[in-house]
């Protein structure tokens, strides 16, 4: 059961949007390898705004994700790509519907 769902907001520097998209596209490959991560999205609600909602089956899996390669790739280039540090909000999951 999905219980933990953080939401991360990213704001790209002008001209860096494609770089963020590339990192997020590679992130999907890595997220698919995480057994405790049944839900992972990369969204672009605005021209330079990005969001990453995801969900984990437990706190341990979420902590492993936050110290894993997706976050590392993003943070390694954060100063160059982002106008400000990523903003993350932890959200408790009350109900879910996940279909394959």
Can you lay out the helices and strands and say which pair or pack?
Elements: E1 7-11, H1 17-31, E2 39-40, E3 49-55, H2 59-66, H3 69-76, H4 78-81, E4 87-89
Keywords:
Alpha-Beta Plaits, alpha+beta, 35% helix, four-stranded antiparallel sheet, single chain, 4 strands, 100 residues, globular
Question: Would you kindly provide a written description of the structure presented here, covering whatever features stand out?
Answer:
The protein has about 100 residues and is of the alpha+beta class. The protein contains four helices and four strands; from the N terminus they run βαββαααβ. It has a single domain (about 5-90), classed as Alpha-Beta Plaits. It is globular. It is about 35% helix and about 15% strand.
Q: How many beta-strand segments? A: 4
Task: Supply the CATH architecture.
Answer: 2-Layer Sandwich
The overall pLDDT, averaged over residues, is: 88
N to C succession of SSEs: EHEEHHHE
Alpha-carbon distance between the termini? 15 Å
Q: In terms of per-residue confidence, which ranges show pLDDT below 50 for 5 or more consecutive residues?
A: none
């Amino acid at each position: 059961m999905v219980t933990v769902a953080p939401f991360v907001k990213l704001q790209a520097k002008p001209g860096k949007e494609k770089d963020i998209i590339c990192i997020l596209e590679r992130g999907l490959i890595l997220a698919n390898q995480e057994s405790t991560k049944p839900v992972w999205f990369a969204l672009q609600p605005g021209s330079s705004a990005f969001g990453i909602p995801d969900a984990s089956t437990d706190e341990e899996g979420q902590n492993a994700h936050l110290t894993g390669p997706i976050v590392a790739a993003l943070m390694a280039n954060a100063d160059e790509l982002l106008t400000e540090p990523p903003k993350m909000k932890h959200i408790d999951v009350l109900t879910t519907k996940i279909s394959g």
